[in-house]
Amino acid sequence: MIPAPFDLVTADSAEAAVAALVEHGDDAKLLAGGHSLLPLMKLRLAAPAVLVDIGRLRDRSFVRDDGAHVTVGALTRHRDLETSPVLAEHAPLLAAVAAQIGDPAVRHRGTIGGSLAHGDPASDLPAAVLALGAVLVAVGPGGSREIPAEDFFHGFMDTALHADEMLTEIRIPKTAGAGWSFQKFNRRAQDWAIVGAAIQLGPTPRVALINMDMQPLRASATESAVAGGASPAEAAAVAAEGCSPPEDLNADAAYRRHLAQVMVRRGLVEAAGRSAASGQSTVT
Amino acid sequence: MSAIGTPMKRREDPRLLTGEAKYVDDIQVPGQLWMGMVRATVAHATIAAIDTSAAEAMDGVFAVYTGADLQEMGLWGAPLPCAWVVTPDMANPAHYPTAVDEVHHLGEIVAVVLADSRYRAADAAEAVVVDYAELAAVPNLDAAMAGAAVAHSSLSTNHAYHWPLVPDPDALEAAFANAAHTVTAEFVQQRLIPAAMEPRGVLAVPSPYGGDITLYSSTQVPHILKVMVAATTGISEAKIRVVAPSVGGGFGAKLNINPDEMLAVALAHRLGRPVRWTESRTEAAGSTHQGRGQHQRIELAADAGGKLLGCRVHIDADMGAYMMLITPGVPLLGSFLYTGVYDVPAFGFTCDGWFTNLTPTDAYRGAGRPEASYAIERAMDLLAAEVGVGPDEIRRRNFLGGGDRFENLTVASTLVFDSGHYGPNLDRALELADYDGLRAEQQRRRAAGEPVQLGIGLCTYVEICGLAPSRALGGLNYGAGGWEHAVVRMLPTGKVEVVSGSTPHGQGHETTWSQIVADKLGIDPADVTVLHSDTAISPLGLDTYGSRSLAVGGVAISMACDKVVDKAKVIAAHLMEANVDDLVFENGAFSVAGTPAASTPIQAVAFAAFTAHNLPDGVEPNLQEQVTFDPPNFAFPFGTHVAVVEVDTETGGVRLVGYTAVDDCGTQINPLIVEGQVHGGIVQGVAQALWEGVHYDEDGIIKNPSLMDYLVPSAAEVPSIRTDSTVTPSTSNPLGVKGVGEAGTIGSAAAVMNAICDALSPFGIADLPMPASPQTVWRAVESARATTGGAS
Amino acid sequence: MTVNGQPRAAEVEPRTLLVHYLRDSLGLTGTNIGCDTSSCGACTVHVDGEAVKSCTVLAAQVAGAEVTTIEGLATADGLHPMQQAFMDCHGLQCGFCTPGMVMAATSLLREHPNPTEDEVRLGLEGNLCRCTGYHNIVKAVLACAGGGA
Question: Strand, coil or helix: what is B87?
């Protein structure tokens, strides 16, 4: 179908984008790859009066090794995450998650910043940044600020971003070869996850869940259990604790809780296997 | 070399591969107006008020018409047609292109806007405000039967008709009385969205003079549409031309006579401006008919050895809100197949049709026959379990003709099956699938208690193709015949034009027809041009549905070629100063038997027939012959499908990991095309088993209208398919051909569900509803574990 | 932008989707529309050599980019190897999904020159076909890859 009419402002810098947001207030939306926003606009579920096109800010598209962490520009496309050698080495979970978003054509357009700012609990990248303990950087009229991933997602499609702020980069601590896993359960490859789990082991093991509540969230009970040395099965048994899963045609809440346990258990086993493999290679 | 039987590459492909082909939406004409539809957002309501003022005030908006406006304009000569009034007392509420007072399903048109662009038509349609006074809706078949709400205020009940086919009630009674084993099963055939990849579209172009009108429609049935446009709009049939340009799939969804087609024609005719509309995918859930929608109960009676004695079937069929072209007849198309490939002495079938406040149902790939095949093939697996034999063995014990070859065999439903040879077909499928190896792997996984179990499902199906002998259709109260028309003409230069009344939408008619003609006339297939799908070029025809194209239309072409050769022979004999009876026709040339060196090519005869300088007395110039073929009987293709699934008992996820199909569609003209039809049909049936199904809520609102939620599978969800065929020629036509367009769909849903139930049999799970979604499977496993303490 | 090698410029409404720009403004009707939710891939074209769904991109977003549609694939010498492989393997029936499928497949081979069957199937996850059951499409893509396209 066809979007309702709107005005288009093309921003040539992050500052210009923020200025446009300040000028147009709540009527304006940022347009990056457009793969979260345009589908809603075509169905006329969203009808912003002004779109601020930030898709041309190529200098905001990068994956960079910054020593202790990897910095990813907010306009980096899923495809570039998927194929980044820096991520493959230092945060392979993020590359693996990106590789399973939507389909190849979607991954050629969609951006990490656009996906995170959309705040959809059914999308994959929020879980990845939660599991990786990433820090998000936003710029607004008053300058830039850092937002830890765990403070970023506030509710259904609601984030810590202010209406006049733009995400500029995501800082991801290097994972130093620690085990990880991404489990996504859906009915067709191109579909959103019915339930998913992103797991990153390391000094602070993190387990994040997809589509298990109104917002992307971590499975804190499981994380504590893992930290306390519980087996994957034991840790997974509490994966859905504290969640209020949504209900839809694919799954009711009880089934989602069950799936979360299976995904987390399988993910913990896989992650532990990767840790072991990585540990061995360090020894030899 | 014979062209028939050769896997020729399709001549249709280059234009489709390069974007050169034109579908309806690709055709632009000057001065066109875009129609935007204002559709009911509720399932059942009276229309209290419609405010069109905002839409009318918008830039580029030409007009806005409500249903009442159109009624007042006198656009309709008659309601939209139902061509299959299955019983004399069938309820058939009037169905006009737009609702006037009361809407009866989500998506029914209540007003139309005309604007000068696609975008403005969408904006204007959105700006029309409709005030509904909601009525109690009938949101499903159960509610229809319960009758607390009635779908049409003009009716006192939701019951539409009762149709029985019980050839011998006493024998049926006796069969069940004498049975050692009985099986009773109930199945739900969920509603399906056909989802041809090209959404429907129309473009009506009036001629500036004389009142003629051309309708371009994404339709399977231009010829039928032409008649029905005349009936519905009152425009003279002789003034109407219908063109089906490239059509992007149909699967039955494009064989209807739709409100939008009538609106485009009537408004274009009235306004003198071209009027067009293209369906959006989400709109299609309400604007194009759906398939299936049946509750089935099947009972089998068998002796101690599992030999069938009787089969009794009752169907409750969801008509939706209106009787469209063949809505009430779809269950009847299946009625004759509930005994499948089996020798069943006694049979009875009854069907009740019911109205709901849902999108009308009508033909969808297989139309009645996949439903029938599903019921008998699932029930045979249940019988196998009851008797304690394997699914292959129960089938062998019951095959018609004992599994041996037969011809013209009368079956319990009173039809005469043209030919069959079921035993070797099953053998080949089991061999190709490595059935024994699969069973061994299944045992291994069961013994190891692995979370991912293996299931193997069989389906030995038969179907009815070649619709249809006109007398048989008449006997079922169908409103038309089942013949097909063909013209074969040789041009002065020796090239051949074939005019086919059968209208393709992806089946490759041009290639297949050229192969038939090439063989029959002894010429190069490249010298054959096939014309079709335009009533100005091909005025007679009954179009494409029911796997009829080859078995009726292709045969008509073959017969027309025979007539061309007969006439050419008379002319050739005259030219060669020989006796007609002494001439033979071989490799495209006439010669006196025994002296092949002195021959006259048919092209030379064609030129002589064109110049007409030297024709025998009484012979008309030109080589052109026509045939209207009305088949004496249907054709009955059959086959064996073997589905292999992995069922993850922890998540409920099902993955189809293997599929083998050995089909027998009689003589094959182009094996490449046959195989392609099988592949596609299989995946559509698999999709019913695993992914697809329309979800309506209690108010009759569709919860999954888009392709984001209505799960048409992609390449990633299905495996490659192993195919082979056996060939048992039909006795219903001189080519021995049967039909293959629907076979895959008819065999595959049952095969997949049999496989899933086979995988879960250790849990005591005998049946699951379609689609077997992960949640459905998981819940069944959980509840089995709760009651039995787990798998044995 | 450049479309099939030719520079194109036009003033369009900001909301104009790339697919409508190609079809309605440029008359390049080979790119089809099969859904409204970015699900079916019938509208797949290349932007700067990569497959994108032109129903989910504003024409304005690709100003300055190189767009290739199905019309830009064949040359005077004949069909593109992928088009030829689809024809040879009977990878199409009604043809409606075909332009998008071919564009997705060529993009796929650019990124995975020697894919396995599973990689082909996953690589085409965003393109729906209702006719072929995908068997011959997958066969065509593998054949094209094997042929060194």
Answer: coil
